[in-house]
Amino acid sequence: MVYKRILVTNMGEFLDEIVENSLDLIHGRKVEVIGIFVVDTSVPFLTPSKVKDMMIAELEKKGGEVLSKMEKKFQKPNITFRGTLRKGDPADEIVKVAERENVDVIVMGTGKTKIDKHLLGSVSEKVVHSAPCNILLIRKQ
Amino acid sequence: MFPWILYIVILAGSLILVIKSADTFVDNLVDIGAALGISQIILGVTASAIGTSLPEFGSAMIASLTGSTDIGVGVVIGSNIWNIAGILGISAIVSGLIKTESRGIKRDGMITLITALLLIFFMFFGDVTRVSAIIMIIVYVFYLWILIRDQKKDSNEIKGNFKNPIDNESSSTKSFNIKTVLWTVVGFIGLVIGCRLLIYSGIEIAKIAGIPEMIMGLFTLAIATSIPELVVTLSSAMKGLHDLSIGTVLGSNTFNIMIGIGVPALFMNIPVEKLSLTFDAPVMIFVTVLVLLLLKRGMKLTRIDGLILVSTYIIYAITRLYISV
Asked: Nearest-CA residue of chain A relative to B27?
C-alpha cells in the first residue's frame, strides 16, 4: 500500500525513534504528515480547579514543544507537515482525527511493561482496537 | 456502635465540604485578584501554592483556635510526613518514574528542609510563640517572592524562544462581579464549618477509640486533608508533569509549617508535645532528607524509591502507634 497521509502521534517520549521509523515508511515519497499531541484533560475527583487549569496549560505547552520538534524533524521537500493539538481522551482523539482526516496509517509508540500497563493503561492498545486504518507501532528501545 | 458510624459519616462529609469549599474560595479569590489587576503569574503561583494546602491550614487553624493544639500540630507534621513518604512514594510506584531538575531540588527541596529545621529549632524552646510565627511567615513570604520571580523569568524565556505552531483557544478571563464575591464568602464559610466539623468528629472518634488526639491529627486528619495533594501529585506524575508532581508536595510542606503553624501561633502560643519534638519532627526531617538524597542520586524517583518511601511511612506509623497507644 502507498501511504499518502500519515498520522504521527507522540506524547513526548522517544520522538526520535518514531520520526526515524516514519521517515523509513515514507521512503522519499510525497506524503502529508499530520502530527498530533493530545492533552489528557481527565483529572481525579477533588482536584482543585485552578490546579487542573495549570495542568492543562502545562500539557498544552509541552504539546506545542513536541509538535514544534516534530515539524523540524519532518522538514523535507517531499513532506507537508501539519500539527494538531487536541484535548480529551488520547485514544479517542487519535481515532477521531484518523477518521476525520481519512489517514492511511497511524504511527505511534508502544512498549510499556506489564506493570505499567496495569497501573497506567495503554493508549496504543485502545487505538489498536478502534482505529479505522493500519497502525505502525514503534517499540520503545 | 451507632456514634462511631455517625462520626465517621460526619468526618467523610466534612472532608468533602472542606476540599470543595477551599477550591471554591481559591477559585473565586483568584478571579477577584485578576479583576483588581494582580498579575496572572502572582495569582497562579499563590493559588497553586495554597490551593492544595488550605484544608490542612484550615484544620490546623480551627483546631488551635478551639483549644485542640495537639491536633493542629499533628495535622501539620503528619501531613508533611505523609506527603513525602506516602504520596510521593505511591506516585512513584504507580507512575514508575518521577523526574526532577536540579533547580527543583535546590530551591523547593532546600526550602522544605530549612522550614522543617526551623520548626524543630523553635520547638526546642517549648511553645511556638508569636516571635517564631512572625519569622515563619516572613520566610514564607520570601519563598513566595522567589517562586514568583522564577515564574516571571520562565515565562519570559518561553515568550522569547518558543513559537507554538498550534492555534490554541485563548483562555477567557472571568469578570469580577457580586456573584464572585458571594462564592468567595460561601467558600470561606464552608471551609470554616467543614474544618470545625472535621476536628469535632476527629476528637469524638479519638475519645470513643481511646486514642490520643495527637494520633488522630497525625494520621486520620493528616491523610484526609492531604487528599488534594494526593490526587494532584499522582495524576501529574501519571501525565508526565514531573515538576508539578514534586513541586506540589514540597510546596505544600513548606506552606503547612510556615503558615499552618505560623498563623495560629500569631494568635496563641502553640504548645509542643514531647513526642512531637523527639519523634515526629525528626522523622519529618529524616523523610525530607531521604527523598532529597533519592532525588539527587539520579534526578528521579523510581518505583523502587517509591517502595522505600512507602515502607518508611509504614514503619513510622507502626512505631508511632506502638509508642502512643
From this structure: A50
CATH code of the domain occupying B2-158+177-324:
1.20.1420.30
CA atoms within 13 A on the CB side of B214: 18
A75 Cβ under 8 Å from any chain B Cβ = no
Share of chain B above pLDDT 70, in %: 92
Contact check, Cβ <8 Å, B162/A64:
yes
A81-90, B68-77, B246-255, B279-288: which range is least confident on average?
A: B68-77
How far is it, in rounded angstroms, from Cα B227 to Cα B55? Answer: 9
Q: How far is CA B116 from CA B204, B245, B252, B261, B285, in A?
A: 30, 20, 12, 11, 6
> Does the beta-carbon distance from A46 to B166 stay under 8 Å?
no
Q: Which chain B residues are closer than 8 Å to A113 by Cβ?
A: 96
Q: Which residues of A touch B239 (CB under 8 A)?
A: 40, 55, 59
pLDDT band for B168, please (50, 70, 90 cuts).
very low
The residue ranges of every structural domain in chain A are: 5-139
Q: Superfamily for A5-139?
A: HUPs (3.40.50.620)
What DSSP element (H or E) covers A65? Answer: helix A49-73
Cell numbers describing residue B155: 515565562
Phi, psi (deg, nearest 5) at residue A107: -110, 125
CB contact under 8 A, A12 and B162: no
Highest mean pLDDT among A108-117, B64-73, B152-161, B314-323: B314-323
- Which residues, in sequence order, are CB contacts of B63 under 8 Å at separation 6+? B69, B71, B72, B75, B199, B217
Contact list in A for residue B248 (CB cut-off 8 A) is 51
Interacting residues of B131 by C-beta distance below 8 A, sequence separation 6+: none
Grade residue A104 by pLDDT with cuts at 50, 70 and 90: very high
Say what the pTM is.
Answer: 0.86
